């Protein structure tokens, strides 16, 4: 039995609110239950120095957490003068995932920067961030098309992400904080809307994971991704 | 005529939403028009080293702005490894203002940390932050009383803040971004609910300010503070 | 009665020594009693990137304090790798104040950098710094005219600064360290030689400040500024 | 056909040299072909503050690369004052992997720090680092037993790591730099000597990865791990 | 012929002004010609962690240069967030030199921190700093004796420093900036009042230095040190 | 009697292994007994900004030590975000020494960066680094000639370095860690193959050094340099 009473293959309530702030080309507040992440897409002309002159675009991401997004306050990283290893690692993961969603050649020399800032954390912040950032990314790409800077849509596919893990020996989908802190294994899975894997990142904290359990977890993740992509699509059909 | 069509002594629409996030002892989303700041109060036992053993409490604040809170994206301070001078200066201002609201002796050896993070900026982020942080502070102090850690309320008075300035030669209240970027003089005024000054910080960017103009601006600020304190009180009477 | 025996509207002895060091275009050692600040003006061609191509100049300032300028040694900021919030805040204040003294259009694409380094501190370092930096600035602007790089004087007016505060309930001018550490309210006022306000920055540390007290303090500051401008003018008429 | 002429399931030549340096409790130079990583295990009494008083030990890791370990020189991270995101991410991966190898309860309040410094890079530095660090870890744990500080061996199992990927559409084992830079998908797999998964981290850089391909890659990794564990065991049976 | 017209074995005019600032236990403004360095000695109880519990004292030093001490402005190190390699290297040299002057056992668990800040630079700042810091150190040690914290004088000997170099092939003493920037070899020599070497640090920038030239330079330095020690003694006999 | 049983003028066993890693233009593993330093020379087109357009080249160096090169682990400087003063000071020494070996005019606008990373430390790391870096430098310069980028050899002379010191009152050559930690005086001497001094850097930790002792130490260093240059030449005659 999960602490939340959810079925093992049940996501938390997912909400996706577009246009949450007004300045960004894409701005999405996504909730996976009590986890709430503000994802903005900022579109700028030009690409970083190492990409220049190739006619290709760039997609990158940064992750942050407000100091009191968590149960006890974390020191503000800007004040400490250093991002934690965890912050850096998650930002890189989000960037890789979203880069996969875009045909950089078709994007041309534009950069989309995805900022994912956790307003409230209850487990799964990185998977919520990826899922929300993809919606913000679509709004960012649409703004380029609306402004006639791009004539075709550089989106290759939607990406969404979900965590799966073994909680008290049972595979469960979309772990909240209580489950996450007790789980033996935590696997974050990023997939496309056509069920291809973009990123798989799993760690056995306690017992090593047997091959069949890995397969069960991956199957469970696939179920969750289908629902998440549906939620993304529903949000994107609104004005 | 103001760009927004407001009267010269008219605040923008003010909204104050308490309990915006669930972990913090106080959590307030405040809007001054399109300026939206999330203010959390984190209450912890103990005080910083330089205060220890005096039996007195401490109130401090930090300020931040999400990278895309503004019209064009600002680099993330945590990633740059350094807070800007502006960020540091505003954080210190908020801390001084809120410290004035509390009887530190009556607070005892507790620390209240106020984090003010701008989700969307349209001028006046520091005044919105102070006004919202005071509501969050009250919720933080109430949590100490509810938990029987304090038997009396250490709040001395409410504080609120508003900007005033000379826009095209006329004194105006609560400048938005368009006004602020064109104003000759910008004055931020922090006052108590009994109309005492806590902080006055004004800069003449162009022409030096004559004494009578300073007095007109201070009077205008006083009007705005009355309305802001009323909005704070209204929010605090809700559950 | 003030600890120093001064009248409430009496400045400490003011000395202004120009040409204190030889390399800088302007170099002034200013004393407000035991507070001694070395202010240099460095004039360079060109302006920062954000100002380029507008034909306008720039004036900026940095503040520092030698580690043993104070009663107990402070850690060296260069060694700690970080300026304190106080240092940053004061540097920005000095910059704003001195920028107001200059017609940036008439300055053309030159930058004047004012470095204010406190050799000995006894309260009022920021006001001494502003007052001394303005003299150094004039010497810097004169060097541009002497070298025929400028044909007209871009100085709009002199600026000077002084602190006022409530000490044991009485308004006093130019607080020294003992007064400052016990004052209820501390107000730093920057004014022009024609008595316009450039910057007003005041904090009530204890009791909020009543409106009439604010007016008394501003009047007292005005008296002090008149004397400080006279001291600046006297220094500038020497060779 | 692989650039190196290797079979698709063929590791590069693996060498493991223990006691490469004399000060560390464990010191291993491991080569995966031209990739050479010096892995040291430093054993110290005590644990980090967040672990104190629980009677449990700690295993952590740091990763580095000499500036000219690569084809073109990288800036020295110590001189830049900042580790790259990649460095941080790999150090965390190594730490998680090696922590899994040890029964922290049985280790008691000792810390083992694994430093993995790449002397020469040719792809697969993180997998070589994990594989070598596990041998250094065993030497570190043996030193504790030899000194009678531990009476039982806290090692739970050996861990080893290998990369697999799709190169020109074919699954290949242990990618070298040329393959890695052209591979569509790169998967790093950490397993135990009993073939349990400890960490799976894979990224599809181009086409998303189909489920069956993921399974083929994981099977290939399992083959490689068997050989790597054999090489570890052979090295550890030497004096 | 030297640019300044000095004889090859002639020091610049040396002035040593004690009690230049009032807070420090020792405060000396030293001039070697146009090079002026403010040297303060700060005496505190206790020693750094690595020295604790041995009953011995510590002497350390830090070096800095005001941004406009030189002909063109240098960026402020505190603002850049990093001391230059040159600054670090000189601070360490001064610390080693002054540590040699004191019997740390006799000092007991006190720390003397010597801050050497260059107000105006014209070559030889590190040698002026050492020479002035030794006078400040003596005043610091005297304050400990005056306060009866020490009953005996822990000073072992005075130390002084001077530069020597080959300028246009000729050995010259106490190089000023013009000579220094053209010299082939620059040697900084720290000696005691009984003509023992404490530190010798020389670099041949152009031609390597022949053994006999090294000996000629060391002899010249010895001459200069005698005069510098005399100047120190003269200053110390004043009140 | 020296702890190692060596004669007072006897170097430790010296080995110089070229081509230790494959990517760098020069790559040398040098051993002075148990001190082992990997020295690489990286040759790049262009020079730093302050050298541009003069047609001259640049030689620079950086020094590092692996965390467990020493008996107890040192914190990783990249992780701390700061190089120690010692690291900075040694890197600058190596750079000056090697710059002296090259005719920068003849080098043309190329930069040679020498990275000296200590794999194992047992005293004398800086002298081993200089001696090894010179061999790596020669290989770097040869690569430029082999690629026809240079037609003449810009090497002016070989440089080598050795430490000398007073150990129990006796002058000894090439101190190992045990001797170094007990020596009264430690002198690092950099000389050319024709016995000219390039750098002399000596510190008396205890008793000041008498002039005749300095001369004896310098003579002893000269003996050691002759042997080191011979070892360099022997290594360079191999393929």
UniProtKB/TrEMBL annotation, chains A, B, C, D, E, F:
The keyword tRNA processing applies. InterPro entries: ExoRNase_PH_dom1, ExoRNase_PH_dom2, ExoRNase_PH_dom2_sf, PNPase/RNase_PH_dom_sf, Ribosomal_Su5_D2-typ_SF, RNase_PH, RNase_PH_bac-type, RNase_PH_CS. Pfam families: RNase_PH, RNase_PH_C. Phosphate binds at residues 86, 124-126. GO terms for molecular function: 3'-5'-RNA exonuclease activity; tRNA binding; tRNA nucleotidyltransferase activity. The keyword Cell membrane does not apply. CDD domains: RNase_PH_bact. It comes from the Bacteria. It catalyses: tRNA(n+1) + phosphate = tRNA(n) + a ribonucleoside 5'-diphosphate. GO terms for biological process: rRNA 3'-end processing; rRNA catabolic process; tRNA processing. Its EC number is 2.7.7.56. Keywords: Nucleotidyltransferase, RNA-binding, rRNA processing, Transferase, tRNA processing, tRNA-binding. Residues 10-139, 157-224 form the Exoribonuclease phosphorolytic domain. It is an enzyme of class 2 (transferase). Phosphorolytic 3'-5' exoribonuclease that plays an important role in tRNA 3'-end maturation. Removes nucleotide residues following the 3'-CCA terminus of tRNAs; can also add nucleotides to the ends of RNA molecules by using nucleoside diphosphates as substrates, but this may not be physiologically important. Probably plays a role in initiation of 16S rRNA degradation (leading to ribosome degradation) during starvation. Homohexameric ring arranged as a trimer of dimers. NCBIfam families: RNasePH. Belongs to the RNase PH family. This is Ribonuclease PH.
